[in-house]
Design brief:
Blueprint lengths: L4 E6 L2 E6 L9 H16 L5 E6 L22 H9 L5 E5 L2 E3 L1 H8 L2 E5 L3 E3 L13 H9 L1 H10 L3 E2 H6 L5 E3 L3 H11 L16 H16 L7 H14 L2 H16 L2 H15 L4 H5 L8 E4 L3 H12 L4 E4 L3 H20 L5 H8 L2 E4 L10 E4 L5 H14 L5 E4 L6 H5 L8 E6 L8 E6 L5 H14 L2 E6 L6 H18 L3 H11 L5 H8 L1 H11 L12 H7 L12 E2 L8 E2 L1 H14 L8 H21 L6 H11 L9 H8 L1 H12 L10 H9 L3 H6 L1
The structure holds (S)-3-Hydroxyhexanoyl-CoA.
Length: about 700
């Protein structure tokens, strides 16, 4: 393996190049190499200035996350950066790609910064449950003030080099030949300039404190329950109140506190789980088919959302609707998204026009004859979907990939309407499809590998997080949701109000409780499903009919202003409804149930146990290939708090043996619903965890 850091010279300029693919993460060998190279360059009498640059696709994208959790080995990054900043010769950081986390902190510790104009910089540690731990919280506010620094650290999303340049975080932007430009720039420099001594960001103390107050608000609302944002605030405050050295020490302690927390372990797990979910056997065996044009059948909420997601990725879309009026509505649904963005100033009129230039509408299926892929997004009814696929089969070219956006229906029942079932897969988008990150890619038996690989390629192009799911009713997510939804219904009938259940779920870290979520999605969907399943359901299974009584009154949730909650005057947040409580009372009375109290802990233990037990069945049946895929599904599609890593990661931390004991205790009350999954029993007997399965 080549050296992770090399030192060379161009005239009197020393070039320190970091070469640790794929993202030049700052592992121990890189830190050591960097420290040594800077020391050598400084000691070389011929050298007048030093350039630090990354080889390959990027300046370092941060500390090596794989090292976290293992004993830290010297030299530590903060000391390496101090070494750089203390250099008596000017140091220029030359940035390209994504200079993130520890990488951006190296740049902040360097005396000067030059960047390619398409580079991006940022401090994304908060997404890992961490804070910048190598001086970032101390140097950044000194340079650009608290408001911008907190924004960068709270959002964690990189900013463009252009924005950073405008804020004075980067000295020079260049369009090409970064190394040449950095060498030329370094040649002009005669003195060092230490970021730790900067004070311009601290100059307006009142504005600084106002920004801290606003960040506190965000930390206690949008980022509620998370530890890192509060620690970031405390560190930024230290820049105002403590000298650099003390602030740095404070930052270091906060960093280690975060690193030791369950939250960072959960979020780091989510980071790797997200990447692992894209690695599926089919994509390893076959290359994706070309994907340069897309057809979308149906212009309703889902069809329009999918269309927007595709247009945003630069993919031309032909939307098919059954008649001119429907097509008009479909186009309007797409335009509405861009009009909203335009009104908010998030896009320009030119951008809107250029994106809509990729859109074509038609009522004639034969206009799809050249499309590389088509996604059907019509009503969730098998006969309608089969009709669409029979038509698609007639017009699509032989190499085209055919996909159905369905949330429940067996793909085999859809693909059998074609003469090419091996070219058909399921793509379960989540609403709104242009925003939600999760994409379940449903792989029926017998589908061609390159068709599956194309599904994953589409997900990457659309910026979605794909999860491979087997072809089972409800796939991964909705199947498990069905189970814990029933568990919530049981608790409601046994004595907990929907509002108590939702409050417990919210306190756990979800953005909303399950009943608020039902109201948002529309209660009629579940009602239809329950009616359709009425003849096939297990008669011994407990049947809670509270939601049916609510639907019978025409209360379908937010869209009707009434569901489990009341939404007066179009309110988005519901209020408790005494009439719903009366319906629940009446149902209990009908069944002779004496209501009992549920504590928050009771509610969450049952809720999580039902979720994890069904997840075990999903794994046992290979509907999900690994526990981390279930974590990804729930974090990105169902609002499970990312800082808990996902339900399976949570269960490992809670203790599988304890969870199994809970399930066995519940089983004595309802042996039909609470059957311990054999997989869970097996894992507990072997003393294993879900993480062991992930590794296996
Ligand atoms: C930090 O810096 C703490 C400091 O403040 C203080 C320290 C004391 N480490 O995402 P991709 C791997 S915390 C190790 O598919 P992309 C990734 O797992 C860090 N590995 O590519 C994948 O491996 P594989 C703060 C890393 O082009 C491969 O690289 N920094 C790291 O879509 C390609 O990744 C961050 O949080 C890493 N830091 O996106 C940045 N980063 O092929 C995290 C990536 O085996 N990284 N890998 O699956 C990212 O956001 C994206 O990876 C990036 C590239 C935007 C860089």
């Amino acid at each position: 393996m080549s050296d992770p850091v090399t030192l060379s010279k161009s005239g009197t300029i020393a070039i320190v190049e970091i070469n640790n693919p794929p993202v030049n993460a700052l592992g121990q060998a890189v830190r050591e190499g960097l420290s040594d190279a800077v020391r050598q360059a400084e000691a070389d009498p011929e050298v007048t200035a030093i350039v630090i640059i990354g080889a390959g696709r990027t300046f370092p994208a941060g500390a090596d996350i794989k090292e976290f959790g293992r004993p830290m080995r010297e030299p530590h990054l903060p000391e390496v950066i101090d070494r750089i900043e203390s250099s008596t010769k000017p140091v220029v950081a030359a940035l390209h790609g994504t200079a993130l986390g520890g990488g951006f902190e190296i740049a902040l510790g360097s005396h000067y910064r030059i960047a390619l104009s398409d580079a991006r910089v940022g401090l994304p540690e908060v997404h890992l449950g961490l804070i910048p731990g190598a001086g970032g919280t101390q140097r950044l506010p000194r340079l650009c003030g608290a408001e911008m620094a907190l924004d960068i650290m709270f959002k964690g999303t990189p900013i463009s080099a252009k924005v950073a340049h405008a804020a004075g975080l980067i000295d020079h932007l260049v369009e090409a030949d970064l190394l040449g430009a950095a060498i030329a720039y370094a040649g002009e420099l005669t003195e060092v300039r230490r970021t730790r001594e900067e004070t311009r960001g601290l100059a307006d103390e009142a504005a600084f404190r106002t920004a801290l107050g606003a960040a506190e608000q965000t930390a206690n609302t949008r980022m509620r329950g998370q530890m890192a944002p509060l620690q970031i605030i405390a560190c930024v405050k230290a820049t105002l109140e403590q000298p650099f050295a003390e602030g740095r020490l404070y930052e270091r302690n906060c960093f280690f506190e975060c690193l030791a927390s369950k939250q960072s372990k959960g979020m780091i797990h989510a980071f790797f789980a997200e990447r692992a979910s894209a690695k599926v056997p089919e994509a390893g065996r076959a290359k994706p088919r070309p994907l340069n044009s897309l057809g979308v059948v149906g212009g309703g909420t889902m069809g329009a959302g999918i269309t927007v997601a595709a247009l945003n990725s630069g993919l031309p879309v032909t939307m098919i609707e059954r008649d001119d009026d429907s097509l008009k509505r479909g186009r309007a649904n797409v335009e509405e998204v861009y009009d909203r963005l335009l009104a908010k100033g998030r896009i320009t009129a030119d951008h809107r026009a250029s994106v809509m230039g990729l859109y074509t509408g038609s009522t004639d299926y034969s206009d799809l004859s050249d499309a590389d892929m088509v996604i059907e997004a019509v009503f969730e009814r098998l006969d309608v979907k089969r009709g669409v696929f029979a038509q698609l089969d007639k017009v699509m070219k032989p190499s085209a990939v055919l996909a159905s956006n369905t949330s429940y229906i067996d793909i085999d029942h859809i693909s059998s309407a074609t003469n090419r079932p091996d070219q058909v897969l399921g793509l379960h988008f989540f609403s709104p499809a242009n925003i939600m990150k999760l994409l379940e890619i449903v792989v029926p038996k017998g589908v061609a590998d390159d068709v599956v690989a194309t599904g994953f390629a589409l997900a990457k192009r659309l910026g979605k997080v794909p999860v491979r799911a087997g072809n089972s009713t409800g796939f991964i997510g909705n199947r498990i949701l069905g189970k814990y939804g029933m568990c919530a219904a049981h608790m409601m009938e046994d004595g907990a109000t929907p509002y108590e259940i939702d409050a417990a779920i919210y306190a756990f870290g979800y953005p909303m409780g399950i009943h608020a979520m039902y109201d948002l999605a529309g209660l009629d969907i579940g009602w239809d499903n329950r009616k359709a399943a009425a003849t096939t359901r297990n008669p011994d299974e407990r049947d809670v009919q509270i939601a049916d009584r609510i639907c019978e009154r025409g209360w379908f949730g937010q869209k009707t202003g009434h569901g489990f909650y009341l939404y007066p005057d179009g309110a988005r947040i519901g209020t408790a409804d005494p009439e719903v409580l009366a319906i629940i009372e009446a149902e209990r009375a009908l069944k002779g149930i004496t209501p009992r109290a549920f504590s928050v802990e009771d509610i969450m233990e049952r809720y999580m146990a039902s979720m994890v037990n069904e997840a075990c069945e999903v794994l046992r049946e290979a509907v999900a290939l690994k526990p981390s895929d279930i974590d990804v599904t729930f974090v990105y599609g169902y609002g499970f708090p990312r800082f808990r890593g996902g339900p399976m990661k949570y269960a490992d931390g809670y203790g599988l043996d304890k969870m199994l004991d809970n399930i066995r205790a519940y089983e004595t009350q309802d042996p039909v619903f609470w059957k311990p999954s054999p997989l869970l029993v097996e894992l507990v007997a072997a003393g294993k965890t879900f993480d062991d399965l992930n590794k296996g």
